[in-house]
Amino acid sequence: MSTDTSTRIKSRQVELKSRPDGVPIKANFQMGEVRLTPIVDGEILVQNEWMSVDPYMRGRMNDSASYVKPFQIGKPLEGGCVGKVIESLNADFGVGDYVLGSLGWREKWKSTGEGVSIVDPKLATLQTYLSTLGMTGMTAWAGLTRVAKVKPGSTVFVSAASGAVGSIVCQIAKALDCRVIGSAGKAKKIAWLREKAQVDEVFNYNETDDLTAELGSLAPDGIDVYFDNVGGEHLEAALDHMNNHGVIVSCGMISTYNATEPVPAPRNLFKIIGKRIRLEGMLVFDFLDQRDTFLKDMSGWIQSGAIVWEETITEGLENAPAAFIGLFTGDNMGKSLVRLG
Ligand code: NAP
Ligand code: FER
Q1: Strand partners, 278
Q2: Domain 5-131+310-339 belongs in CATH node 3.30.300.160
Q3: Cα angle 174, 176, 180; round to 5
Q4: How does DSSP classify residue 145?
Q5: Mean pLDDT in runs of 10 for the chain (341 residues)?
Q6: What is the pLDDT of residue 109?
Q7: Which of the chain's ends, N or C, has fewer CB atoms near its CB within 10 Å?
Q8: 2 phi, psi to nearest 5 deg
Q9: Could you give phi then psi for residue 92, rounded to 5 degrees?
Q10: The domain 135-285 is classified under which CATH number: 1.10.150.530, 3.40.30.10, 3.40.50.720, 3.90.1150.10?
């Protein structure tokens, strides 16, 4: 094979420059460029069109053990992406096919096709495969229907309620005849939750100095399911108002991801005993074998108009770090996505 770099394919990428200390900053990222060798038999070359930024990526920026290995300094970050096959030496993929992969944060990537799936741009817009019909939609569906096993008539409290996961949790719960309480941190998110997502009770946690009292006033009959995206004070407030035998789905704890010191446990954790609360952590990847059922349920809700969603789109690979950092300052409504130029 030629080693002449002029025959190689140029691809720009976002690399981890340094590990964040607290909230990530732009200086933790750098732009890099690589030249990919030509594809060989069995491989495809993909040009990314969309990439996802997700809170879990903050964990991968730390050098600590987790369900997945940390990002490496000087190497590109990774994450959900949708792109177009521009070269193929693999019979399962044709040039022009759109595919879902896990090598975001770069312009182009090669693959043997393992873990890569073809998506249909006629069924939904390409970026929907990174949101409502993708990882975040499936998290909402699995957390509520499989982990919580929510029942009609339940009171469901959702934090980060206008975000990618939370906005879908709220609407699935409504579609399943639950009473829904949502919290979010900005006035326009509160308005969207009320007007577009038809959430029953909504509050802005930045406008209250007593989260527990606020939640108590909106949930006079208690909470049956708390879908926790935030942790910290939200979890403490929910524990105070959970009903006996209630379920807390620990989906995420974004309020703790940038902590520089170990975060204290909820001071009222003992309440899980007397109230016989089931507090269960979840990882969406454990439910991949149920993807067909998820897609059937979700497509039905989308077609009936029961589920709508918002996207916050950032233009250009070089602006992906800003989009990612914005997750921690609440810049996004609904799913945060980056369109590659
Ligand atoms: P997202 O909600 O679309 O974006 C993050 C939102 O979190 C922000 O817009 C912000 O909204 C809120 N937030 C940020 N810092 C906060 C703080 N200190 N306190 C309260 N709220 C804060 O993100 P997403 O992708 O849907 O993820 C939501 C949660 O689900 C995250 O915790 C994530 O880690 C988790 N998750 C888990 C899995 C799994 O398999 N377990 C899969 C996907 C996602 P406000 O303006 O409302 O504050
Ligand atoms: C997430 C937050 C945390 C997530 C996964 C984790 C897939 C897992 C963390 C760990 O194993 O340490 O949003 O999404």
Answers
A1: 247
A2: no
A3: 35
A4: I
A5: 65 98 98 97 98 98 90 98 98 98 98 97 97 98 98 98 99 98 98 98 97 98 99 98 98 97 94 98 98 97 97 98 98 98 75
A6: 98
A7: N
A8: -65, 140
A9: -80, -10
A10: 3.40.50.720
166 Cα to the center of ligand 1, angstroms: 8
147: which DSSP letter?
I
Q: Which helix (H) or strand (E) holds 216?
A: helix 211-218
pLDDT of residue 67: 81
252 lines ligand 2 (CB under 6 A): yes
The pLDDT score that the predictor gives to residue 235 is 98
Chain-centre distance for alpha carbon 268:
28
Pocket probe for ligand 2: among 60, 66, 282, the residue whose CB has the most ligand atoms within 8 Å is 66
Integer Cα distance of 226 and 247 in angstroms: 6
Q: How confident is the model at residue 66, as a pLDDT? A: 83
Residue 240 tokens, joined:
């105070």
* Cα–Cα dist 291/138, whole Å: 8
Please count the other Cβ atoms lying within 10 Å of the Cβ belonging to residue 269.
Answer: 13
- Which amino acid appears at position 153 of this protein? G
What is the distance between the alpha carbons of residues 294 and 143, in angstroms, rounded to a whole number?
Answer: 11
The closest-lying atom of ligand 2 relative to the alpha carbon of residue 64 is 12
Instruction: Tell me the two tokens of residue 157.
Output: 């409290």
Per domain, the residue ranges of the chain are 5-131+310-339, 135-285
